[in-house]
Specification:
Order of helices and strands: EHEEHHHHHEEHHHHHHHHHHHH
Distance between the termini: 44 Å
Largest sheet: 3 strands, antiparallel
Number of strands: 5
Helix content: 55-70%
Oligomer: single chain
Structural class: mainly alpha
Amino acid sequence: MALAGQSVAHRAAGATALPGDTITWQCWGIPLLRGAERGSVMVWVIAAGAMLSAICAQIVLAQQKWPGLAMYTVALVLWLWAMRKDKRLLGESRPLPALPRETQPWYRQRWRLLLLGVSAVATAVNVAYSWDDTFETVGGVAWVVSVGTFVAAFWERRRAKGAVTAPLLARLGFGRAGWLLAWPTVAFLVVLVVGAIFRFWHLHHIPPEIAWDHVEKLLDVRDVVERGLRPSFFYRNTGREPWQFYWTAALIWLTGLPVGFYALKLGTAIAGVLTLPGVCLMAREVYGRWVGLWAAFFVAVACWPVLLSRIGLRFPFAPLASAWAFYFMLRGLRTGQRNDFLLLGLTLGVGLNGYTAFRAVPLAVVLCWAVVWLAVRRSDLGRRLRLGNLALAVLAALLVFVPLGTFMLWKPRAFWGRSLWYLADNEV
């Protein structure tokens, strides 16, 4: 490991580093600690201690509840201490883009009001057609229209030529000189391929066993594929959200696979691979490119993510939606862009249709927003945290959640039964 990267001025002059100069730790040319200043090493030691305490807490928690919770508390205190000492752990040191300015207030733009009116009418139609726990054609079209027009009404438009496509093309390596892939992009593609290999290798044979949960799911998938049923909530096995069943049915329609165990495993394996870009972007948003790549790599090869992606149950849909939701949340907290909060709301709404454990994520998002606002409310970053953007995220999530939410109001016992069973009756 070598210490490299003194401040630019001192390097150009050939001078030695002075106290307070910006330095960079590198290992084999890969930056491990970028922009470290005087006292920053201690901050990262504290942060590492918090992570180590959290890992130990997870190990201990499986055997002893209270010692594990105590170690989690220590990890939280250490992490908050590190955040207080160095705001870069919140991503505040990254350059903040300029907020777009509307030429006139949004409520004076008639086309926006028209879109909101269409969204309101479509939402009412969607609710009316959702009471019988069935996705009907009219209700489904109204659902898509209500969400699409709401997002379009509040979407911030970038009128500069190439303002939307240029950053994306630049990240993919497209420039004026042609297509030139930077090696971090190649590294991410390698991580993606490795993650796919771990999830798809001999998937048809491993794992071979089918359990009762799989039988229940296959019966529901068969109802969708062969019997033409379109429920918004599936009652079997204490009740399940619909994402996996329609996801698997779509794969069967596209590939011609029979309704069987392999179709379930293929669907969850794809969900596991789609989680990797979300993890990379989420970590990159706060800690930079290299941490994002390492995070994606560890998720690509770690035992539990790989195992849960291969067994055909609904578990992978929670981390899939969570990774993308927290990416949009972190990006929105940093930039203050309304579009990021709209995408956050859409992701939350989709995630609520996936796995039961995801129901805690919307609360976590609101809590994170409040904590960050309290920590940076007097800074430039804090002035970007508009409550209206958070409200838009909540409204977008609710619009996506309307079919399942209507069922929740209609039959709350069926909707909450599985959660209450895990919380009260099931001994873990």
